[in-house]
Amino acid sequence: MEISVVLADGTQRTVPSDCTASELAALIGRRLSQDSVAAKINGTLRDLNTVLSDGDRVEIVTRDSDQGREILRHSTAHVLAQAVVDLWPGTHFAIGPPISDGFYYDFELPGGRHFSDEDLERIESRMREIIAEDQTFVRSEYSISDGLRLFRDQPFKREIIETVAGQMSEPQEEELNEGVEEGEISVYRNSSGFIDLCRGPHVPSTKVLGSFKLMRVAGAYWRGDENRPQLQRIYGTAWESDKALKEHLLQLDEAEKRDHRKLGLELDLFHFPPEIGGGLPVFHPKGALIRQLMEDFSKTEHRKAGYQQVWTPHLAKSTLFEISGHLGWYKAGMYPPMEMEGATYYLKPMNCPMHILIYKSRGRSYKELPLRLFEFGTVYRFERSGVLHGLARVRGLTQDDSHIFCAPDQLPHELTRLLKFVIAMLMAFGLSDFEAELSTRPEKSVGEDYEWEEATAALDHALKESGINYTVAHGEGAFYAPKIDVHLKDAIGRRWQVSTLQVDLQEPQRFGMEFVDSDNTRKRPYMIHRALFGSVERFFAILLEHYAGGLPVWLSPIQVSVLPVRDDHDDYACQVVNELEKLGARVEMLSADEPLGSRIRKAKLDKVPFVVVVGDSDVSEGTVGVNARGSQSPERGVQLSEFIARISPDLAGKPLGESFD
RNA sequence: GCCCGGGUAGCUCAGUCGGUAGAGCAGCUCACUCGUAAUGAGCAGGUCAGGGGUUCGAAUCCCCUCUCGGGCUCCA
After folding, report:
1. Which residues of chain A are in CATH 3.40.50.800 domains?
2. How far, in Å, is the CA of A265 from the C1' of nucleotide B23?
3. What is the mean pLDDT of residues A30-56?
4. Interatomic CA–C1' length for residue A387 and nucleotide B1, angstroms
5. 3-state secondary structure A167-234
6. How many Å apart are A251 CA and B5 C1'?
7. Which active-site residues of A does the annotation give?
8. Which CATH superfamily is domain A553-650 in?
């Protein structure tokens, strides 16, 4: 008997009737067979030993595909659990899914024990033994009740089975659904006898695995709920080959070198004095200069784009935040109150209520709309100590915050214009790889359905008009507003969330905002919240990491270092410095009290864009030696005028050059 | 906040069995005046995060606190 199956490329293939996916792979080719880890049969991932049926559409999943890597990682997690249970009998094991770049597994060790870093080495060795033993993964299925019996000593597994069995009618989250479906559970058994609840598929045998490394141990709450037990999580990374693993580890090293906290220290930009408190940075002269350059550029462009800059204080009476609703919705995120002269004051967690008061300071006409208020507003948020992370997550931050008040019919156009402005500004900072996310109404929210629909539609329209790629995150909006989040990919492919645009449905109402329309009726304006950089601190961190500290010339604290070869070149060096300063360049001179090589090294470590060396021949010829950041070899004998012409265009940020209307 | 791991000179780190603190870089002084990523010598620099305990004796062992890092949760 023979059957016919359809391959991934659409061709038909006749195979023996008891042919497995694995045998099919072998029939197609040796290489494919070697690289296969699972099969996709009629769109569903299955084990390689699945017997094929007539008419099946079969795709062999290889180890170097995204799905293949997921399976490798998942199976490696399984081996991790096996190793831990071997080493600590009586361990309860919970879940062990693949994640990006790797996998984890959550455990509860007997006697409330915790893993230490040394344990990771022992576990890893045991895993390598299991892998060397070439243990097979064999799937079998049980009824719910048999499953509960099988895992009678594993409370987390039982809970997964029970929860999912109890809610079988409703569609489940993938993760919670592991190994449980349609009144049955599936388990995988190794040849050593280790059993794990798992939906699969798995690789056929542990020998397929091996390019992995355990990375770290961490605490993680069971099912992500901080009211439930905290388990011991082990993270690992796993790849299709040792080469891919090595590349990944190199990438991690690269990311470490770019860590903005490290660069901040090395380049003398900022630090976090413990005396001030966690999450509260101080900016040193060079760091403050960079901030100022960023802010100045942004302010100029905002003015040109029709924004009006405002200024508001850092504190306000509780009344303001009662009206705005922050004390109702967000109190846990605010700093505790201060009592003064019978009133209660809070540090502001957001600038919007104050901007609204500026709007409300007098009657507003439709002729003034859209009214775009803009501020570098410093806000304070009580972030839990464990979440602080350098400049990327702080307790005191400066938002490049804008609130745009417009008439309802202006909303779609205003949002489109805004999104274009946001993208143009980010591009001016040398970022170009964006994606957006449209977050819709969450369960816990306020407002009328039609308002949410209108606002969400306007955001959707703006996304389409701007041409940016986007996805919809259902139910991820703020309680008061749907929003667009702009994410960017940095130079080494990491995603960062930056800008956020929200249509506020609540505050205009809470504050009773109005404008007089052309027909002399009073109407409620729409309000858009927007932070473009997100926060200046976080954006600063992103830029540092994106550029690995080598900021664009216009943002570099020192743009040119001038190095006379000997003392008697000082006069000429000063002339060069003067010429460059006339252009507005930020220049420093490193005189010859140290060897030239040493001074060059210093300037290079400071990531100065242009190191200019002047010696005998330069004095007589009116030239400079240019050692540009990133170039392989220095350039001798460049005419000063030519050097000036070359660098002039890059000394200041490039205007956005669009009108946005 | 919770779990794990750290905290020794401004920075990066060493410090044996518990015996009283060390290097490189940076800093300062002097000498060197040099053509593209480290000139040499000397000097100075520490309440070993803080507090408590064990001990004849603690950077080292124990407890508590603070703080930093990695995660979890959180991010209106």
Report:
1. 553-650
2. 22
3. 91
4. 10
5. CCCCCCCCHHHCCEECCEEEEEEECCCCEEECCCCCCCEHHHCCCEEEEEEEEEEHHHCCCCCEEEEE
6. 22
7. 352, 381, 399, 401, 403, 483, 529
8. Anticodon-binding domain (3.40.50.800)
Residue nearest to nucleotide B73 (CA to C1'): A226
Q: What is the DSSP string of A251-315?
A: HHHHHHHT-HHHHHHHTT-EE--TTT-TT--EE-HHHHHHHHHHHHHHHHHHHHTT-EE----SE
| Each residue's pLDDT tens digit, A270-292 | 998 888 888 899 999 999 999 99
* CATH code, residues A94-255: 3.30.980.10
| Nucleotide closest to residue A615 (CA–C1') | B35
> What CATH number labels A266-312+351-546?
3.30.930.10
The CATH number of A2-62, from 3.40.50.150, 3.10.20.30, 2.70.50.60, 3.20.20.70, is 3.10.20.30
The proportion of chain A whose per-residue pLDDT surpasses 90, expressed as a percent, equals: 67
- As given in the structure block, the two tokens for residue A459 are 């955001």
C1' of B50 to CA of A274 (Å)? 13
Closest residue by C-alpha to C1' distance, nucleotide B69: A389
Closest nt by CA–C1' to A592? B33
A619 closest-nt by C1' vs CA: B35
Range with lowest mean pLDDT among A156-165, A299-308, A415-424: A156-165
Encode pLDDT of A217-255 as tens digits: 888 888 888 788 888 889 999 999 999 998 898 888 888
pLDDT confidence band for A588 (50 / 70 / 90): very high
pTM confidence score = 0.89
Chain B positions with a protein C-beta closer than 7 Å? 1-6, 11-12, 26, 31-39, 66-76
